[in-house]
Specification:
2 copies of one chain form a homodimer. Chain A has 234 residues and is of the alpha+beta class. The first copy, chain A, is 24% helix and 27% strand. In chain A, strands 1, 2, 3, 4, 5, 6 and 7 form a 7-stranded mixed beta sheet that branches. Chain A has a 3-stranded antiparallel beta sheet with strand order 8-10-9. The longest helix of chain A is centred in the middle third of the chain and has 18 residues. Chain A is elongated, with a radius of gyration of 19 Å. The relative contact order of chain A is 0.16. At the A-B interface, strand 1, strand 5 and strand 6 of A face strand 1, strand 5 and strand 6 of B. The structure holds a DNA duplex (30 and 30 nucleotides). Chains A, B: Keywords: Hydrolase. Chains A, B: GO terms for molecular function: hydrolase activity. Chains A, B: InterPro entries: NUDIX_hydrolase-like_dom_sf (IPR015797), NUDIX_hydrolase_dom (IPR000086), WH-like_DNA-bd_sf (IPR036388), WH_DNA-bd_sf (IPR036390), WHD_NrtR (IPR054105). Chains A, B: Pfam families: NUDIX (PF00293), WHD_NrtR (PF21906).
Chain lengths: 234, 234
DNA sequence: CCGCCTTCTCGTCGGCGTGAGGCTATCGGG
DNA sequence: CCCGATAGCCTCACGCCGACGAGAAGGCGG
């Protein structure tokens, strides 16, 4: 068999919404190269694993996501990154994976390296080409909110329409009219399933609680600003 | 550096529209495993290449696409495939790439193995997991026609609105009203640039010739049948 | 040469989804 | 007790799109 040999890793873009901000899970590297730089969590693919297996294993290991994450959350492949010089140790191909999680109580009880959720706006200068992978992951997440019901993956099992709207506003960095948003999501069949309970304790009228419905697609999609036509997409 | 080592290949899903049918470029394997089976064209990533370089090199090698393909065509990454048992020779990760080309005159003057465009409807039983990669590529192409101007990548440098509509109809396997389609594509800024010439010789009123415009996105998108909501996507 | 057919192109009409915004219900707090 | 804040319902106007009519402009057969 011809061809050079690669080490194959999986790097995770784990996104969540905290305090109305889109956050990403990062780990501080404890070894060279890029020692003490922030990096995306990840690891190498084992002998008997498929790529998705590795991604799921790393996700659980880094977040303890087995509890609620695996139920509500979402995990999908982003793309492959294999520039010849992306890793000084040799030829490494990294498969980026995108994970969307509800705001977990605290992601740091991992005994290993320092891990933290940081606002994506503040993140730059990651190790390797992880800035690129992160940018691709954020863009993928933004695009998918338009035509899927994936925003619910950022929410706990039960949530209000306002919770869901704040997810859109945080990811897109826009403001959405609460009344039109409510009409849109509640009138899409299978998006939201109302529960019998309401939330008390907040200000204002107590909102209805919903659960995720079986729908995965939004027809028609919910479009963000038609940012400008023509020219390169960036 | 931990982790097992992989051979890394690039496999191409090269799509074109011929005789109002979506076709895919296949090669007949001349060696084991899967000898004499049809497979996607592809090859291994070389030492100094990034993944896109390999894909572009293979595309030119297999189609001679340098002439018109590279100008009008389109090439993008599909995803990574690395199931542990996908290749009996050992651990191979394959990056799928999707290429959209105008109908090239004839793709067979390659001195190498037998190559042919075959209608995707008739294709099954490809080597390795290429059936899966092909299905993913076709689905990606179908989805992208909805919200991008990529359909023009299937057309020669100058084409009519009817040519473009036949691309949509072939890829989606639907029928589209010619009058509404014309209104949509001609009213989208930057999609089509009219030329001074018209086509003569055919039946009916001579149509206007257009060139691709700079627009890449369709806002709002052109939606195909809302195929059915809810449930898993595949 | 003259209908007739085909295809391209433009217009019309009605329904639906969405942005904008008014209004009521129902809470906490001063 | 009143007020501000939030949730939820409703109306209206506009634009896009599906359905479809009709004219424009060519080829073709009698």
């Amino acid at each position: 068999m011809r061809g050079n040999l690669f080490a194959v890793a999986v790097d995770l873009v784990v996104l969540t919404v905290r305090h109305d901000q889109l956050n990403v899970l990062l780990v501080r590297r404890g070894e060279r190269p890029y020692e003490s730089h922030w990096a995306l969590p990840g690891g190498f693919v084992r002998a008997d694993e498929d790529l998705g297996d590795t991604a799921a294993r790393e996700l659980v290991a880094q977040t303890g996501a087995a509890t609620q994450g695996a139920v509500q959350g979402h995990l999908e492949q982003l793309g492959g990154y294999a520039a010849p010089d992306r890793d000084p140790r040799g030829r490494v191909l990294s498969m980026g994976y995108l994970a969307l999680l509800p705001d977990v109580p605290d992601p740091e009880p991992t005994g290993g390296p320092t891990a933290a959720f940081l606002p994506v706006e503040d993140v730059y200068g990651l190790a390797f080409d992880h800035d690129t992978i992160l940018a691709d992951g954020v863009e993928r997440a933004r695009a998918k909110l338009e035509y899927t019901t994936l925003a619910a993956a950022f929410c706990p099992p039960e949530f209000t329409v306002t919770d869901l709207r704040r997810v859109y506003e945080a990811v897109w960095r826009t403001e959405i009219d609460p009344r039109n948003f409510q009409r849109k999501v509640t009138s899409t069949p299978g998006f939201l399933i109302p529960t019998a309970t309401r939330v008390t304790g907040g200000r204002g009228r107590p909102p209805q609680l919903f659960r995720r419905g079986p729908a995965t697609a939004l027809h028609p999609p919910m479009l963000r600003e038609p940012v400008a036509l023509a020219h390169a997409t960036t």
